[in-house]
């Protein structure tokens, strides 16, 4: 099977062998425990979902992918520990904020049970959530974030109730609250201290690392804290040291040096009498979104095994040198656990093509510049590409100016635009076949990339693409046995010019256009945005009142067959309106009143009133996204 189109999206680099090419050119899901089995077609799955009434845009969560991430992380630490002769264990926790959805958190607890995998709460609401879950035996519940007396009280008494709740002190003021609550309740809490590492890291979160990080105690504050705890006879409560470098750390050297510094603090605190048992190194383990294996914002220059080995070896060295026992290793990896397990799937609604393949001739009375522009294709050659592009743009500008001054009419300008698109199309064809095109020409041609409109909201479903220029891998889900003939950017359905994606992961690196197929009438064209499980689901907002998308969870059963496990319908318009302080019932009644007046004044007839009210009511209870109502199409 020719897999060159499949490979052109670099899927084998970022897909971790969990996506494969089906015989018919569809993109399919692979069961990680059966890598040699045939992939299960995503478009067929989506057609199936559609028949049940669940349409795109939707988030597809794959249970097996989540399980695989947990197995990989715990397995890699176990291997590193065994190989290096580390004399303690690894106990990971999942930071809830990275994906708070019940369908994700509960599965992590379930799949992570064998590893004693726990949770990290970064706020009181997250603690309340965590306390209600069935945590695995021996699992940690790390409590970070700003804590009021209520948060502290919950943490202290939950510990008494048998939950391994560790209250991590983030500031000197918090320590006073903890001491006061502990005295009031007459109970000793399990405490941690968040230290501020001085090392700065590279990557997207560089500014929040080092001295300027907003969380954690300075060295002086840590020393003062120890004295205070000692004075209160509470030093024996201090069992954990926490530090966090920032998310998506691209450079392994940064991680190694940070662990080294954390170990220095750890051995010193122990020397001063703190009975520390747990070394919590926070999050930061990256995801190779671009598959380039480089130390850039969206990639990383290390493997999971390297990450674990580096940590284990650094800690052994530091502890042995200080002649201290090896602590329990804790990490709070969020991204690495959930990113791969969710895919955002959208359908393309329409395409604006910025060229045309059919030639068009000027009319006899048209301005001569139309013919001049049409004549460009006569002298187009590899050496004169730039000149042809310059000429085409010049004529187009001049003709537009003539239109503005009233010299030529709208039909002539329309023809001029078509001639321009034809010329650009021929230039694009020539450039596609040439090897040495100047960067200037390529950049100018970027202005003429197609625009494909996809049924989703960037602000709701991919907020990091908008906020921090996150690059996420994107690929069509069908026709991967057919060379895509177009190059496009994607725009969403919000009416916001920021609602677009113009960075794409391809085999040759990051490109500013996505190779994509020409659309066929009455045939669905799906695209998938991959590795979206971390942060995207919960950071999104209701821009233009587009709500949560449908969510479908699937998993491979014991026979390797993909099964639907769970579906959650996305927000209705009524739900979204309620979220922004409108009462849907009142909206309906108010609209009814307005329509009633229109009937009374004769503006609409009773039949139109019925259609209007039915449509309003149905829309109110329907999906917030573009709905393909009554359209008959399949994916091909
Ligand atoms: C305290 C803490 N722990 C863990 C994480 C998760 O980090 P990551 O998703 O990079 O693993 C974060 C996120 O930045 C964090 O602030």
Can you offer a commentary on this structure?
By secondary structure, this protein is of the alpha/beta class. The chain has four domains: 195 residues, Lyase, Ornithine Decarboxylase, Chain A, domain 1 (Beta Barrel); 248 residues, Alanine racemase (TIM Barrel); 79 residues, Methane Monooxygenase Hydroxylase, Chain G, domain 1, CATH 1.20.58.930; 48 residues. Helix content is 40%, strand content 16%. Strands 4, 13, 14, 15, 16, 17, 20, 21, 22 and 23 form a ten-stranded mixed β-sheet that branches. α6 runs parallel beside α7, α15 runs antiparallel to α16 and α22 packs antiparallel against α23. The chain starts with a helix and ends in a 16-residue tail after the last helix. Bound molecules: pyridoxal-5'-phosphate (PLP). The site of pyridoxal-5'-phosphate has 17 residues, from α12. The site of pyridoxal-5'-phosphate (PLP) has 17 residues, from α12.
Structural features:
40% helix; Lyase, Ornithine Decarboxylase, Chain A, domain 1; Methane Monooxygenase Hydroxylase, Chain G, domain 1; eight-stranded parallel beta sheet; alpha/beta; 23 helices; TIM Barrel; 636 residues; single chain; binds pyridoxal-5'-phosphate; 23 strands
Strand content: 15-25%
The 3D shape can be described as globular
User: What's the story with the biggest beta sheet?
Assistant: 10 strands, mixed
Rg over CA atoms? 29 Å
Q: Note the gap between the termini.
A: 19 Å
CATH architecture group name of the largest domain: Alpha-Beta Barrel
Query: What is the tally of beta strands?
Result: 23
**Class by SSE composition:** alpha/beta
Q: What is the CATH superfamily of the largest domain?
A: Alanine racemase
CATH fold-level label of the largest domain: TIM Barrel
Number of domains: 4
| Small molecules (ligands, ions, cofactors) in the structure | pyridoxal-5'-phosphate
Helix content: 40-55%
């Amino acid at each position: 099977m020719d897999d060159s189109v499949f490979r052109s999206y670099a899927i084998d680099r970022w897909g971790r062998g969990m996506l494969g090419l089906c015989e018919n050119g569809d993109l399919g899901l692979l069961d990680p425990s059966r890598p040699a089995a045939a992939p299960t077609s995503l478009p067929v799955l989506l057609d199936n979902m559609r028949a049940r009434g669940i349409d795109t845009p939707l988030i597809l969560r794959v249970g097996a992918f989540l399980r695989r991430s947990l197995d990989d992380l715990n397995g890699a630490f176990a291997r590193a520990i065994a190989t290096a002769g580390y004399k303690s264990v690894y106990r990971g926790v999942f930071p809830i904020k990275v994906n708070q959805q019940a369908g994700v958190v509960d599965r992590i607890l379930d799949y992570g049970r064998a590893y004693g995998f726990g949770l990290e709460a970064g706020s009181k609401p997250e603690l309340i959530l965590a306390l209600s879950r069935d945590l695995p035996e021996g699992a940690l519940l790390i409590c970070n974030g700003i804590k009021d007396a209520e948060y502290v009280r919950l943490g202290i008494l939950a510990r008494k109730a048998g939950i391994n709740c560790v209250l991590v002190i983030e500031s000197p003021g918090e320590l006073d609250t903890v001491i006061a609550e502990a005295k009031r309740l007459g109970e000793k809490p399990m405490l941690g201290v968040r230290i501020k590492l001085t090392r700065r890291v590279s990557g997207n979160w560089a500014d929040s690392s080092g001295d300027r990080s907003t969380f954690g105690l300075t060295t002086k504050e840590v020393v003062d804290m120890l004295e205070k705890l000692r004075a209160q006879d509470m030093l024996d409560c201090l069992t954990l040291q926490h530090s966090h470098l920032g998310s998506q750390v691209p450079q392994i050297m940064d991680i190694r040096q940070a662990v080294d510094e954390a170990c220095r603090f750890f051995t010193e605190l122990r020397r001063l009498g703190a009975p520390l048992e747990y070394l919590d190194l926070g999050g930061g383990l990256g995801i190779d979104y671009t598959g380039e294996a480089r130390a850039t914002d969206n990639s990383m220059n290390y493997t999971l095994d390297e990450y674990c080995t580096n940590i284990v070896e650094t800690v052994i060295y530091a502890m042995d040198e200080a002649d201290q026992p090896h602590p329990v290793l804790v990490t709070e990896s969020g991204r690495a656990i959930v990113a791969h397990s969710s895919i955002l799937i959208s359908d393309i609604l329409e395409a604006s093509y910025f060229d045309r393949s059919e030639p068009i001739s000027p009319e006899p009375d048209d301005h001569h510049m139309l013919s001049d522009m049409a004549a460009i294709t006569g002298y187009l050659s590899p050496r004169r590409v730039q000149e042809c592009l310059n000429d085409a743009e010049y004529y187009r500008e001049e003709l537009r100016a003539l239109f503005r001054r009233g010299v030529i009419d709208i039909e002539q300008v329309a023809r001029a635009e078509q001639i321009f698109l034809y010329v650009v199309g021929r230039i694009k064809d020539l450039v596609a076949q040439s090897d040495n095109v100047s960067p200037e020409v390529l950049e100018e041609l970027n202005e003429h990339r197609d625009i494909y409109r996809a049924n989703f909201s960037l602000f709701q479903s991919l907020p990091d693409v908008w906020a921090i220029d996150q690059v996420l891998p994107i690929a069509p889900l069908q026709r991967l046995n057919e060379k895509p003939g177009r190059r496009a950017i994607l725009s969403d359905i919000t009416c916001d010019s920021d609602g677009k994606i113009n960075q794409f992961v391809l085999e040759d690196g990051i490109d500013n256009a996505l190779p994509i197929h020409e659309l066929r009438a009455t045939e669905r064209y799906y695209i998938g945005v991959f590795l979206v499980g971390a942060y995207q689901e919960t950071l999104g907002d209701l821009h233009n009142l587009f709500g949560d998308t449908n969510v479908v969870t699937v998993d491979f059963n014991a026979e390797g067959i993909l099964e639907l496990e769970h579906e959650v319908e996305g927000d209705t318009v009524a739900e979204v309106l309620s979220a922004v302080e409108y009462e849907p019932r009142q909206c309906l009644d108010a609209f009814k009143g307005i329509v009633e007046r229109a009937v009374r004044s004769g503006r609409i007839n009773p039949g139109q009133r019925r259609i209007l009210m039915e449509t309003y009511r149905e829309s109110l209870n329907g999906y917030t996204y573009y709905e393909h109502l009554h359209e008959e199409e399949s994916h091909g």
